[in-house]
Amino acid sequence: MLTRNLILAIAVVASSLIAQSAVGQKHQTGALGKAEHNVYYYQRSTLFKVLPVKSSDIVFFGDSQTDGCEWNELFSNPCCKNRGVNGDGLAGYIERIESVVAGHPRKIFILGGVNDIPHFASADTILANMDRLISIIKMKSPRTKIYLESLLPINNDFHKYKGLIGKEDMVLAVNRGYAKIAERQHVTFINLFPHFADAEGKLSKAYTNDGLHLLGDGYILLRGILKPYVK
Amino acid sequence: MLTRNLILAIAVVASSLIAQSAVGQKHQTGALGKAEHNVYYYQRSTLFKVLPVKSSDIVFFGDSQTDGCEWNELFSNPCCKNRGVNGDGLAGYIERIESVVAGHPRKIFILGGVNDIPHFASADTILANMDRLISIIKMKSPRTKIYLESLLPINNDFHKYKGLIGKEDMVLAVNRGYAKIAERQHVTFINLFPHFADAEGKLSKAYTNDGLHLLGDGYILLRGILKPYVK
Hints:
The structure is a homodimer. By secondary structure, chain A is an alpha/beta fold. Helix content of chain A is 45%, strand content 10%. The first copy, chain A, has helices spanning 2-21, 39-50, 64-67, 71-74, 90-96, 98-101, 124-140, 168-185, 193-196, 216-230, and strands spanning 58-62, 80-84, 107-111, 145-149, 188-190. Chain A has a five-stranded parallel sheet with strand order 2-1-3-4-5, with helices on both faces. In chain A, helix 5 (90-96) packs parallel to helix 7 and helix 7 (124-140) packs parallel to helix 8 (168-185). Residues 7-33 of chain A have low confidence and may be disordered. The interface between A and B is large, with 38 and 38 residues.
């Protein structure tokens, strides 16, 4: 009985750790230093190194929300390329942006920062990293058009991502900061938040099954919002 | 000190559970019944439902090994479509093949079954499910050309996927069975195994960083093997 209870207790802790590991726990340093990434980051980033970006490309650069989609199919446009890495944070984005800007793509859509939220008490470091990412793109590929998307709302009713619980206000603060960065850096800000939020400001259950990621209908909504910019 | 040791012990057990959960633990039923899938399965399969497959398409149908690649880029062919779902097993494949065959694609490349290995003592159920999957495709889309790929070798030196430890012989048994199924069902069998195996029959460390998934160079090798069939 003791053994059974011990196993149960370990299972509870383990499942909480598993849930937590799914968001924001994959990068050991969230600051600007060289981050320790998980194996999947290296699988994707070595793939991206052997698949060169071209000057006609429209790059979707992000984390799992980007990784999970088939962008060329969504927009019926083979120039649309997926450069998403499940679990990635902005330190990872900064490290791997080189393989994207080296090809001087026509456009880059950036969606990211939510995986960094569990690591920080305020939005400041996230905003500094996003600002730096945009500066790097502008410096290395000045003719690339940059689109900075807001974070999507989150929905903690699913109790799936422990690191995001109570962080609704931080999502809003990041989005306010992103709007300001976009204005200062002269890039286009696309505010996705209100399109996906329900009356309480949570990611609508019509578009998600875990409070963070999109179902097919969510990507269809996103297509409608991004279409004028992708064209 | 006791607390610290307890935390350490829990962390060790938890990390082992996390590693195990990454392969083959996501489907609660491995038999032919309706499986319980994880949230990601539903995110991907609802996306696939809103992105219709066309009769000119070449579909890469599989699990994480398929999901992690950008097939249209790898083959410079916008008809190549990714229908991979990280963590999926053959029961999941059978449930979601409908959205693929409904479009009567030109070709389907099937790579899968490794996530089922932890659930079964022998290869029999895996082979029965693969046989059924191929029968469904042939019945519902008789003009689609089917390519059955062997399982890749695994490499347990990484100690990453506990459910695969000691299962090297089962990979070989599944591959022998796949070759027979392909012959009986008159579909093309592509034996990937020898291309990726080192002298000991393990997935070569040149192509993987976790013993199961491919790095960029692994996908480049795969491209060379599949190219004559994709064309």
